[in-house]
Amino acid sequence: MTALIDVENLTLQFRTDEGLVTAVDNVSFSVGKGEVMGLVGESGSGKSVTAKSLMHLNAKNAVYSPESKITLHTEDGPVDVLSLRRPGELKVVRGGAISMIFQEPMASFAPAVSIGKQMVEQLQLHSDMSKAKAKEVSIEMLDRVGISDASSRFKQYAFELSGGMRQRAMIAMALSTRPKLLIADEPTTALDVTIQAQVLDLMKDLVDEFHMGIIFITHDLGVVAQTADKVAVMYLGRLVEEGPVRPVIRDAKHPYTQGLLAALPKLDELDASLTPVPGDIPSPLERPPGCVFHTRCPKYLGDVCREKDPRKLEAEPGHAVACHIYTGEGS
Amino acid sequence: MSETPLITTRGLSVGFNIGGSIFGKRILKAVDKVNLDIPLGSFYGIVGESGSGKTTLGRALLKAVPITDGEARYDDGEVSYDLTTLEGSELKDYRKRAQLIFQDPYAALSPRMTVRDIIAEPLEVMGLTKGREETDKRVREIAAKCRLNLEHLRRFPHAFSGGQRQRISIARALVSGPKFIVADESVAALDVSIQADVLNLLKELQSDLGITFMFISHDLSVVAHTCDHVAVMYLGRLVETAPTRAIFEAPRHPYTKALFSAIPSLDPDERGGAQKLEGEIPSPTNQPSGCKFHTRCPHVVDQCRKVEPTLENAGSEHEVACHRWKELLAAMPA
């Protein structure tokens, strides 16, 4: 598979009044063309911050470590994303080759500008299309994502559309510039299950049609199982497990991934009680030393977990896990 | 359960006036002729998409929106109230007995009050305790019950995670000693890891304190795990009610079936086999004739467009409102 984006040793801290807060800690992954990666974790695990780094979209107080490197492979050669500075240069990662869909479609559209006008505006920003051509492309795109009567919807405002419709319009807008990589940040969390199923279907079709890569951020492992080719599980800024979707879901290695799977209500085991992951995710200000998960880990091995950061091991080809159970350093 | 149900409604309707002229008002029917029996001590699930009227139904039972038509009765063995006419001191007493837990624990707690004050407020407002000492004692009791750290009572909500905040909201709802709690999407905003913890807490309260829960949710897998009874709503109507096991093993209404098959499966090899619903729930201001689900139903026939089906018996405590359920059942491959 041709690589689309490579993230290497991404470490990101935020400068705050209370000191440097580590949000992402030495994360590496890559996404190829036509590949869907699910990025999974609780709130506060650093999923969204990681995704925003790919568009160089984090707040001004973000500090990237010198080792951090994000390379986007475009037709005009590789682009070093973190070295981009001027708005003109950033255009390629912000809506050009990379587009993003957010969780709350109501908050992502400007309320007082019609959907169509917003679509035309961004198309003109990223290409040399005429206004008429941009309008034509926009309407075509709205039609493509399953919005009926697209030319009249084009003139409407975000509040006039239902939740599912708004998310479709958001997808249409993100895809109209033909991005190579789509980042979808919890795109179906605010939707009903029936509408969620429709939107997921649509996204799968679009991957096939446009052959783009997708980074799908979610906390719902069911959604990941249904859409992703590979999965990366994050906890407190670390990647704790990654691999192809089948082994990770069927035979999770890391206690955190196992915990997430056990906490999920399953329809075929109605009598089984739900097992929460004990405790809460610690504040990033109080990052535990050693393995970041040791404060909540049911398989805590003692000193080694508290003191030593587990290195990443391959449990099987392509399926990596960072846990002392497998490093053998605990015994 | 042969006892009198805690909540009984017959033909309960809630309409909102949305304008109109002297020639007639325009009424939006959010809840339409609902018959419900919530058994004492049960965990009763209400399921449906956004816009199906589940929240309005919950609020009507709490007397937070006016009931426009039909009957609703509350009977916990000690008192029995007619919810349509309840007022004055009886209404005040009902407020103690019936409480609400909200969806978003970030919006439901005042950022300017300490956790202790948040939990104590219902006691002070309703005058349930005689002095600060008694209030404090009660607050500590409830906080411990909800597994809150007592040292945290002096802190403000911003210092807590989503799961802890939801436990604070639960403590606030519990402090007046209610018999009936409406939990409106109470775990929808939480991570799965935390969600299980809050659900287990609610189940514990049901069995330890004998509280009856009306659990409103759009997440069927959560409902399947927690509730004893489930009622499925669509556009203000009940379309199917049954004990949880019956409805999950043998859903009868096409809408219920579609809701189940829309749940993403954890099995990566089971992709896309589901029966998908087309389109979206129609606007309640412009409701379809006949069966309200006919615009999206894969099994629609002419009769569905003209005649509205009523709930009929489909097994023990299992009721379904569909013209064709028997026919579809017979046609189903065994």
Describe this structure in words.
The complex is a heterodimer of chains A (331) and B (334). Chain A is 34% helix and 24% strand. In chain A, helix 5 (115-126) crosses helix 6, helix 6 packs across helix 8 (163-175) and helix 8 (163-175) packs parallel to helix 9. Among the domains of chain A are: 108-178, no CATH class; 250-327, no CATH class. Chain A has 331 residues and is an alpha/beta fold. The radius of gyration of chain A is 21 Å and the shape is globular. With 334 residues, chain B is α/β, with parallel strands linked by helices. Chain B has two domains: 40-66 and 82-234, P-loop containing nucleotide triphosphate hydrolases (Rossmann fold, 3-Layer(aba) Sandwich); 241-334, no CATH class. Chain B is built from eleven helices and twelve strands. Chain B has an eight-stranded mixed beta sheet, sandwiched between helices. In chain B, strand 9 (229-234) and strand 10 (237-243) form a beta hairpin. Chain B is globular. The chains are: A alpha/beta (331), B alpha/beta (334).
